[in-house]
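RECORD TYPE: inverse folding
INPUT: structure tokens
STRUCTURE:
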């Protein structure tokens, strides 16, 4: 009888250990799924195909103060038009969800629309972005030209260097156009950033032949890289 009792005790002990192990596994799975919270994007977009292979147009989740995506979902190629995308929120550190462009390190380059985690409705964070032009050039316009360059190169009677970089005017003034001083060369040569005057100016290259040093005007190196990659990818609008 005593032996039978010992056998039953061993069996129940083994079951108890198995139950403990199973409990740990369930706990890990729950942490990964973060209670099933999701972000859902709805938008009407254009310009997606203009981005070069160094970048991804994504729905991405970010932690506060961090430019690198916690998780992201690629918008499919050729997705211009009405788009719906869903992203699982896999971390409790998420503070914002954004329709944005990231580089190969998943670092945010430019953001088009965002929603904060405080806007959760139940387990769903809705991001209704409306109509958006996501083109590579439009991103440069919004991120760099409008905010920085147009203060001197704006619409008016005498923009600096005879160049306007205001929205709606900049593309025609840059791509394939000689400088107002022809000896300085072509402002943007599609497919060839190093010979483009714009590249030389933003990198502070003395070969640009301009008197004002523009190298400190654009504060983030990723913005300069974005301009160079746009040129090398064909300088499409």
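DESIGNED SEQUENCE:
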């Amino acid at each position: 009888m005593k032996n039978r009792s010992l056998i039953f005790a061993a069996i129940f002990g083994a079951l108890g250990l198995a139950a403990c192990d199973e409990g740990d596994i369930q706990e890990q799975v729950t942490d990964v799924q973060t209670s099933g919270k999701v972000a859902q994007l709805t938008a009407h977009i254009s310009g997606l195909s203009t981005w070069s292979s160094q970048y991804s147009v994504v729905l991405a989740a970010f932690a506060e103060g961090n430019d690198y995506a916690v998780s992201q979902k690629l918008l499919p190629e050729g997705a211009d038009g009405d788009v719906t995308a869903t992203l699982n929120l896999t971390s409790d550190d998420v503070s914002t969800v954004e329709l944005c462009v990231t580089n190969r390190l998943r670092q945010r380059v430019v953001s088009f629309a965002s929603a904060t985690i405080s806007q959760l409705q139940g387990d769903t964070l809705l991001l209704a972005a409306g109509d958006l032009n996501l083109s590579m050039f439009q991103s440069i316009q919004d991120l760099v030209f409008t905010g920085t360059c147009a203060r001197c190169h704006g619409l008016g009677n005498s923009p600096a260097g005879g160049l306007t970089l205001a929205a709606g005017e900049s593309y025609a003034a840059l791509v394939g156009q000689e400088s107002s001083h022809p000896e300085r060369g072509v402002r943007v040569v599609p497919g060839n950033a190093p010979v483009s005057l714009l590249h030389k100016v933003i990198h502070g290259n003395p070969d640009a032949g301009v008197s004002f040093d523009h190298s400190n005007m654009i504060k983030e190196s990723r913005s300069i890289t974005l301009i160079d990659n746009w040129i090398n990818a064909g300088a499409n609008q």
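NOTES: The radius of gyration is 26 Å.
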